[in-house]
């Protein structure tokens, strides 16, 4: 019995010793050499790029594993850049890429494809492939002098190469490297817009006045327009200056930092004036409706008190001015420039001359041309401004009878009283 037990233990020891020798011998085997470059790997092209993902680089180190070899792939680190654009938006459906018509980003991405910054099959997912973000959206027909976008692209390109494939009304003015934390929309702390229009739009309404283009505004009228525009400064509810947002929606609360009205200037036969404002962010049609409210007061369609009411009452829509005169002037990145993590501040002051040249050669002359040929502002004043009503629906008129919009108790009594009256009639 004892002999059988010792034999069994001896066999176990021999087995363990044999397995250890096998492992030791396998570790001493010299790995076979890497295949030559003439041998095509099933998942790697001849140019060293993987079929599965074209933006992956190939590491040429071959690593043995289970008597097979594989290629270790490393993702290319594309640096982040900020790009400065100027464009005349009269021929485009806004800034954002869309399939309904030509937009600024549609044209821009096509140029990226032609110079090799964007694969053609990635056009629908260009924002994700390039890690692309714009600082501001623009509506249809709105132009921009300094539109900043952030994106990650490979080095080895130049501005002239991009502009070669862009139309004359879209220009890339500059490209600067930025930190990897930079995002054009997130780090944009304020935006400056301007609105250029003929001065006769601010003239008090008079049926006997025929030749609008000969009108010249006086200094008192400019001062009055400036005072009206200043009433928008501060934080207010701009629910009546946009669409599909009510006063209880927090998105309607916006802050206007600064307003400015320029002196009148001549462009050909037409006298023009420029309104400029800076705010943290703006909603759809907000600036155009603010300008429309200034025009309404100057022409006697509304009063100063009505402007204050549009900022307080639930439903008192302001008129919308034409999109032709609206310009995105500048975007501010103060928080990014002051951040401790920022090593490359973002400033575009050296491009001011090019921006002003683009404005005076491409945008303002077109505004004057449309005004002279189509009487753009005159048509708006006659058809839309004259017929605009500041009254909302029946519910909004009942709310205005209450007074302050936040007086919910009186509002409930008013609505309840109307229900009682209607039940009595029945």
TrEMBL record:
Subcellular location as annotated: Nucleus
Residues at the catalytic site: 139
Keywords: Isomerase, mRNA processing, Nucleus, Signal, tRNA processing
Keyword RNA-binding: no
Domain of life, source organism: Eukaryota
Pfam families the UniProt entry points to: PseudoU_synth_1
Signal sequence, start to end: 1-27
Organism: Thrips palmi (Melon thrips)
The keyword tRNA processing belongs to this UniProt entry's keyword annotation: yes
Cellular component terms (Gene Ontology): nucleus
Top-level EC class as recorded in UniProt: isomerase
Enzyme Commission code(s) on record: 5.4.99.12
GO biological process: one example: mRNA processing
Biological role: Pseudouridylate synthase that catalyzes pseudouridylation of tRNAs and mRNAs. Acts on positions 27/28 in the anticodon stem and also positions 34 and 36 in the anticodon of an intron containing tRNA. Also catalyzes pseudouridylation of mRNAs: mediates pseudouridylation of mRNAs with the consensus sequence 5'-UGUAG-3'. Acts as a regulator of pre-mRNA splicing by mediating pseudouridylation of pre-mRNAs at locations associated with alternatively spliced regions. Pseudouridylation of pre-mRNAs near splice sites directly regulates mRNA splicing and mRNA 3'-end processing.
Low complexity: compositionally biased ranges: 31-43
Record protein name field: Pseudouridylate synthase 1 homolog
Molecular-function GO term, any one: RNA binding
Chain residue ranges for the region called Disordered: 31-51
Every Pseudouridine synthase I TruA alpha/beta domain range: 230-334
Stored SUPFAM superfamilies: Pseudouridine synthase (SSF55120)
Residue sites binding substrate per the record: 193
Gene that encodes the chain: LOC117641851
Subunit and interaction comment: Monomer. Forms a complex with RARG and the SRA1 RNA in the nucleus.
Main location: nucleus
Entries under NCBIfam families matching the protein: hisT_truA
The family this protein is said to belong to: Belongs to the tRNA pseudouridine synthase TruA family.
Catalyzed reactions per annotation: a uridine in tRNA = a pseudouridine in tRNA; uridine(38/39/40) in tRNA = pseudouridine(38/39/40) in tRNA; a uridine in mRNA = a pseudouridine in mRNA
């Amino acid at each position: 019995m004892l002999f059988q037990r010792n034999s069994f233990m001896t066999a176990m020891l021999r087995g363990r010793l044999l397995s250890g020798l096998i492992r030791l011998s396998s570790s001493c085997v010299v790995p076979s050499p890497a295949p030559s470059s003439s041998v095509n790997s099933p998942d790697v092209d001849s140019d060293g790029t993987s079929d599965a993902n074209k933006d992956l680089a190939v590491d040429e180190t071959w690593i043995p594993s289970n008597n097979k070899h594989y290629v270790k792939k490393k993702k290319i680190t594309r640096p982040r850049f900020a790009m400065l654009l100027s464009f005349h938006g009269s021929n485009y459906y806004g800034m954002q890429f869309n399939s309904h018509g030509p937009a600024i980003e549609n044209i821009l991405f096509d140029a990226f494809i032609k110079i090799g910054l964007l694969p053609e099959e990635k056009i629908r997912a260009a924002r994700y492939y390039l890690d692309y973000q714009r600082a501001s959206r623009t509506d249809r027909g709105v132009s921009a002098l300094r539109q900043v976008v952030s994106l990650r692209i490979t080095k080895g390109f130049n501005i002239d190469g991009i502009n070669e494939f862009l139309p004359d009304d879209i220009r890339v003015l500059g490209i600067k490297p930025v930190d990897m934390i930079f995002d054009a929309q997130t780090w944009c702390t304020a935006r400056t817009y301007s609105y250029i229009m003929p001065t006769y739009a601010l003239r008090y309404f008079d049926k006997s006045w025929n030749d609008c283009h000969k009108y010249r505004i006086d200094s008192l009228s400019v001062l009055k327009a400036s005072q009206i525009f200043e009433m928008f400064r501060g934080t207010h509810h701009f629910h009546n200056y946009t669409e599909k947002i009510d006063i209880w929606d927090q998105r309607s609360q916006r802050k206007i930092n600064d307003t400015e009205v320029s002196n009148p200037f001549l462009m050909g036969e037409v006298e023009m004036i420029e309104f400029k404002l800076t705010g943290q962010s703006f909603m759809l049609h907000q600036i155009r409706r603010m300008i429309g409210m200034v025009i309404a007061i100057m022409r006697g369609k509304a009063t100063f008190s009505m402007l204050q009411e549009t900022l307080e009452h639930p439903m008192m829509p302001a008129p919308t001015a034409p999109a032709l005169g609206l310009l995105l002037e500048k975007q501010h990145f103060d928080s990014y420039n002051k951040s401790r993590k920022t090593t490359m501040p973002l400033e575009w002051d050296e491009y001011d001359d090019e921006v002003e040249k683009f404005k005076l050669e491409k945008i303002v002359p077109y505004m004057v041309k449309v005004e002279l040929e189509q009487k753009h502002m005159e048509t708006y004043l006659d058809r839309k401004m004259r017929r605009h009503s500041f009254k909302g629906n029946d519910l909004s008129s009942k709310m205005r009878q209450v007074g302050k919009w936040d007086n919910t108790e009186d509002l409930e009594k008013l609505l309840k009283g109307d229900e009682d009256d209607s039940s009595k009639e029945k």
